[in-house]
Design goal:
Blueprint (H helix, E strand, L loop, with lengths): L1 E5 L4 H17 L4 E5 L2 H5 L8 E4 L2 E5 L5 H7 L1
Parallel strand pairs: 1-2
Antiparallel strand pairs: 1-3, 3-4
Helix pairs in contact: 1-3
Length: 75
C-alpha cells in the first residue's frame, strides 16, 4: 500500500502526516507513507488545496487534516 500525504509543510500538513503514520502503525499494516511537497505532483492528483491524502492513487481527503480514526477507516 502506498500513501501520499500532500502539502508544502504547513502545520495542518504535518498533522495529516502524523495522523497517517499513527494509523498505519496502530493497524500494523505494511504501507509506504510518502510526503509530497511538489505542487506539480500534487496538481497531478487533481488536488488544489492541502493537506490532502491519497491511498494507492485514490484521493481520500482534500483541504483538511484527517483524524487518525478517519485514516484507520480507510486502511
Amino acid at each position: 500500500m502506498k500513501i501520499q500525504v500532500m502539502g508544502p509543510g504547513c502545520a495542518k500538513c504535518a498533522e495529516a502526516e502524523k495522523n497517517v503514520r499513527a494509523a498505519v502503525e496502530e493497524k500494523g499494516i505494511d504501507a509506504e507513507v510518502i510526503k509530497v511537497t511538489d505542487f506539480k505532483e500534487i496538481a497531478g492528483f487533481g488536488v488544489f488545496a492541502t493537506p490532502a491524502v491519497a491511498i494507492d492513487g485514490k484521493v481520500m481527503v482534500v483541504g483538511k487534516a484527517p483524524s487518525k480514526k478517519e485514516v484507520m477507516g480507510w486502511l
